[in-house]
Fold each of these.
Amino acid sequence: MGQVPAATRTLRVLRYLATQADPVSLDAIARACALPRSSAYHLLTAMVEEGFVVHLPDEHRWGLGVAAFEVGSGYSRQAPLQRLARRPLAELVDRVGHSAHLAVLHGSDVLYVLEERAPGRPPLVSDVGVRLPAHLTASGRAVLAHLPPAQLRALYPAASAFVTRHGTGPTSLSALRVLLAETRQRGHAEERGEVTPGLASVAVAVLDHNAHPLAGVAVTFPEGDAGGDLERLVTEVARTAGLLSRRLRGPTSAGPAPRGRTGPKLPRSRISLTPP
């Protein structure tokens, strides 16, 4: 808990609401944010007065308000994470000779916010602004592997949340948990043909000062093209993710989580524009 508990709880609620596709109930908010129901209600009431939250009394649900949109628009204009990542991502492409991208979690999808194409490499579907199911992508899996169990359950409440593109990938929460446990054990995420047949990706999460995953750095390459070079690709991706994490004052490694831990206790983040 930070030095200002009320502010920390408020930001926690905002972040949870931002991951939901639709307004949610008070009980769901209290449960996901580990708050007493009465505390969650008082926080939400104050946030309604400031315009960050709207209350839908007929549905007994709460969602993001206009003020939250204004904050998000301001972030889009400044794009600090993209600015920090642009040069390191270009240098990563130069080192490995494959295309690379940076993606952030957007609900149960990943949103691609930065991409560097390697000359002569095949075109990718992961262009800037494209959204793909997080559980199918390497960058999404790298981020999901660092989320707490409650947030993962909220993102994937039913089997219908597990869409596929080519008939492959996890189709249940239990299958996803197994995949993410393997990801944490390896220290990086992998995807092979689940987004685009014939292409594979490896990714590592970018962590903030609370070890919360802000984004995933990934490299995509033709399956079989990496050959015995896969270990070097992973090392270079981890090097780039570690550099960005340091600039955000986060841990320098997104490797295997300590035993018994499946991610940070609660999702909290702050972008710090520490100069390179």
Note: Confidence is low (pLDDT under 50) at residues 254-276.
Amino acid sequence: MKKWIIITVIIVVIGGASAWFLLGNTDQTQSVEAAAQTTTAQKGKLEVAVSGSGSVTAITDQDVTAANTILVVDSVSVATGDTVDKGDTLVTFNNGDVATAPYDGEITSVSVQSGSGASQGSILLRIEDEDEVVAPVTRGDSSVSTDSSSGGSTGGSSLTADTVSVKEGDVIEAGATLVTFTDGSILQAPVAGTITSLSVASGDSVQSSATVAHITNYSTLQTTISVDELDVTKVAVGQAVKITASAFEDETFEGSVTKVARVGTATNGVSTFDVTVQITDPKNLKIGMSTEASISIESKEDAIYVPVEAVYTSGDEKYVLVPTSSDDSTQSTNKITVETGISNDTFVEITSGLAEGDSVQIPRVQSSGNSSQGGMMMPGGDFPGGNFRGENSGGRSGVGAPTGGQAPSGGGQGGN
């Protein structure tokens, strides 16, 4: 009998200890759930930005064709106001080509001078006929004849390379001579950069439309990012941009918006627009590197701001919940109406209703057992999802995208 009594006592003790442990945990969990999560209104610089990803490209990256050849002017035989007869010499080139007057008339303007270059089709001068019709005389007109004794050519369907003055990898300035042809015409670099390919050698016959070289400028780089249709209306040429690259994690590059696409690309019902950003100082960036760009839309110094989830909406009213406590340590909140200014995805400016350091309640992490979980709750009930966006919100910008608050059922706790 004593044995059974002892066993019964042990069972009762174990049961009581288990009940105490479970009840203690329940109380602890309830205590965690009862604790309100708060933060304080901060004062400082608040920035609104639109971001996107892209890759580095060269601003100057183009082919050079033989159609860009020029003839150098040796002499100009007329001046503005001169009267000429059909066939009179107007311009003579170094290779012996001569431009003559196509008809009787008066020279109204002269566009070239001795030593200047004239590309195929460029205007040499303008002449007015007896009917007072003014027309240009260009290189390549039938009025430009070839001196057969010089073996010259006006640049027909093909040219013969005489001298190639550059090689692949050379860094050249705009206007540098690339190729001299046997007809006396030359091919100059239209832009500065590096010769990345060269497809002509001395003695080669080159079609006038053929690509002779390719020039890339590695010192002037840009990145093109895709911006959501909700944000692109805030982007404008000239806005400052901060750029980061995956290859240089600890370095930030500066830039500015140079172009905003007028036509978007639709994917799964959402349109994005290309925004081109010139990189001010590319440093060691290389073409093809991936980038993240943050376009500064708006900023304000000394702004009072709180997390976006701390602000609730009820119709046209926006308000925050300010925690209070009574003498008996009972926790409650006051509903404070606020006015908001600029905001990004993380913070919203409070222009009226709060001061720096004021405490506000924010949706807290719901506890499950003794571990924090990701569910959002308001004190006293579930917190319904919703989005708050300030009047000048940066849209889908900034870091993260906290969910803002809709008005809890029954309004805020406590009085105004």
Note: The radius of gyration is 38 Å.
Amino acid sequence: MQRFTAPYSSLPEETRGRVHPEEGLDFRSAFARDRDRIIHSQAFRRLKHKTQVFVYHEGDHYRTRLTHTIEVAQVARSIARALGLDEDLTEALALGHDLGHTPFGHAGERELDKLMKPWGGFDHNAQSLRILTKLEKRYARFDGLNLTWETLEGLVKHNGPLVNAEGDPVGRYREHGLPEAIVEYAAGHDLELASYASAEAQVAAISDDIAYNAHDIDDGLRAGLFGLIDLGDVPLAGEALAQVLKLYPNLEHDRIVHETVRRVMSSMVNDIITQCNKNNAENNFRNVAGVRRLGRPFVAFSTAMDARNRALQSFLNERMYRHDRVEEIMARARRVVHDLFTAYMNDPKLLPPGWQDAQPRQVCDFIAGMTDRYALDQHKRLFDLDPLFR
């Protein structure tokens, strides 16, 4: 069956290309090649031992950055197919969106940002760009993965424009300015930072939110941070739970959880598809440029679903991310990052060969690339203690 292609879809044959032109292309599209390069990168493989919420030692069934990324890609590709978007570009963006994350999740990122304040701070989005354009060293002719303009643009701008029409930073960058890595790269390869990214990039971004909410309900219940009864009055989750209990009053706990989570995801996905079709009917986009010029997100929840999503996120923020157990382990994780950074800056010989220039940004790159397990091993080697468990 021939698939529908939306007029506002990104087309691989119309790509703006790569910084380093490549010949001898195979049967894959330009965006499919980008996806495959991300999957085969070292940074992607390291995601399997990087924290999502729970550090790896806490159990084998909690999400890691890798399993989260795969779930985001699945949701994103499903939405892209329903909307007639390029699935390969959408998948590439979903698979690459977390490559710049540090060990120990957001706790590691916050600590590294604090340590790097004198040298421009740390931003995982900018770190993803550094990885894909500089730090991955696999090809003979260039550093990085030499991805298409559309993939790099989508990764940098998946949450919206970084600057306004006057070039002033907006959103999360308003106070401290754009990360140097983004400024430096965009100066030589204009990513049009004042516009929205493609619909494919926006799908990848909102799929991240969907996957977060759904699997954090699952992981939070599994960890005992809250119980099924606590979900009763929570928008989306409570409604889904009530449906499951009505249909299957004698279902065992684990199946109740799964049936609840899948209904939460389905409700959000269906809402996005309906809202996007409505947005397109109102604007009648004829090409991807129309999406970039819209001035607001094209891929979005309805007003009602957005409110329910925010309420669910508020519940998870209070009952999961700020739970004493999670905050305690994350405080110890921040100590690991702090101790390693300080040790490497004071004695560059502690770093592996090729990293011993000890420039702050190089030390930052080295630590940011670590898995949880490697960071803990290095800390134990240098300080002869395990700060997560003592």
Note: The chain has three domains: 28-188, 199-323, 326-383.
